[in-house]
Amino acid sequence: MSPRQLHLNVNLLHSGVYPSAWRLTDSQADAFIDIAHYVRVAGIAERGLFDAIFLADTPSISDRIDYRPFNALEPTIVLASLAAATTRIGLIATASTSYNEPFNLARRFASLDHVSAGRVGWNVVTTADAAASRNFGLQAAVDHAARYDRAREFVDVVHALWDSWEDDAFLGDKATGRFVDTAKVHAIAHRGTTFSVDGPLNVPRSPQGRPVTVQAGGSNDGRDLAAATAEAVFTLSQTIEDGVAYARDLRARAATFGRPPGSIVILPGLATVIGSTEAEARRRQDELWELVPIEYSLARLAGTLQIAPERLDLDKPLPDRLPLPANANHTMFQGTVALARRDTLTVRQLLRALGGGVGHRILVGTPEAVADDIEAWFRAGAADGFNLMPDVLPSGLETFVETVVPILQKRGLFRTAYAGTTLRDHLGLERPASRYAGAEAVAIPA
């Protein structure tokens, strides 16, 4: 049996994970809308043999755009460009089940999987943002439980559509004149609580069978969705103990759905600030922190907690009573409050610990210290790898690839070459069989 291998994605957050990254001298202010920037970062990640590029998304302006860049470009459009500019690295895009339809989304991602020769993944999210709701004709975000009920059915429909063509349905036989074996193309005839979809998909089965299903959510409903449907999970953990507990819980839930423990790759978010010495790394962190306006950080924290900024006193701890709002981002809310309570931080200290709005764990140090930390989490079973968020892009990623990756390779933790060509190959995931393989054909509606 081959040794367990570390997985690394890069979360391509425009100029970098720090809100102030765009203000550094060597940063590009308009990187968030420049496809050349995305291509450059993807090339560095591919040179570093990363599993995938990961693109977040929110279908609204929900951040303080007077202070920082935001996710402006539609992720699947970006991935199409990256597919043409790269050859091996995986390509994961976020798309919400709240404001899409299953057929359109299934078609879009299956098309991308064909275009990229099998390198695509779909990050499933439910959108709780009130501004997004108003962009789609609603006055408020849909209730948390209802969003997840919709999401579960949505994913089931998408998977059925991806399976609706058997692997050998396309013939293209010039001698016989048969183009498609229609007995191997199946209507899915889905009739559910939310969706009614006949199918089949109008795109043949893609190189991976199905694009990889990724999920990001830490609530109870989110964990159940991940346990039932996800093949990789982007999560938030601030300590090894938290990471181990999350992994055990998720894998126990997966077992209740009849899934083997190793069928889900767990990837906590990890922000990195790297210097040749500890002091240099701390100076870089200080520079980035000092360029973040305090009013931005306060507004960001207040938004995570869903309270008025006036309730936050910079030199006092968080308010004692902070009930989890019904439509909060549960992952960010719980992680933020847990960090503040565990380390007894004032609001000012918490804002710094969060990098002015990062939210995920921030690792500051030398390449050796960063590699040591990653190895400790990996060997403890707190992570199968990480969704990396470099402080500044592309420089922070370049530093990681040039200094940390060789250490991980020398320790036998990370690949020295791509062993396969698809995202499933990189992640060690099986290619799923079509659920309709060998089944009697269901008539395709005229």
Overall 3D form: globular
Regions with little confidence, pLDDT below 50 for 5+ residues:
none
The CATH superfamily title of the largest domain? Luciferase-like domain
Percentage of helical residues? 25-40%
Task: Tell me the total number of β-strands.
Answer: 13
Strand content: 5-15%
State the separation between the terminal residues, measured CA to CA.
50 Å
Q: What's the CATH topology name of the largest domain?
A: TIM Barrel
Give the averaged pLDDT, no decimals. 92
CATH class of the largest domain: Alpha Beta
Which architecture of the largest domain per CATH?
Answer: Alpha-Beta Barrel
For the sheet with most strands, the description reads: 8 strands, parallel, barrel
The arrangement of helices and strands along the chain is EHEHEHEHHEEEEEHEHEHHHHEHEHH
CA radius of gyration: 22 Å
Q: How many domain modules?
A: 2
Number of helices: 14
Indicate the structural class: alpha/beta
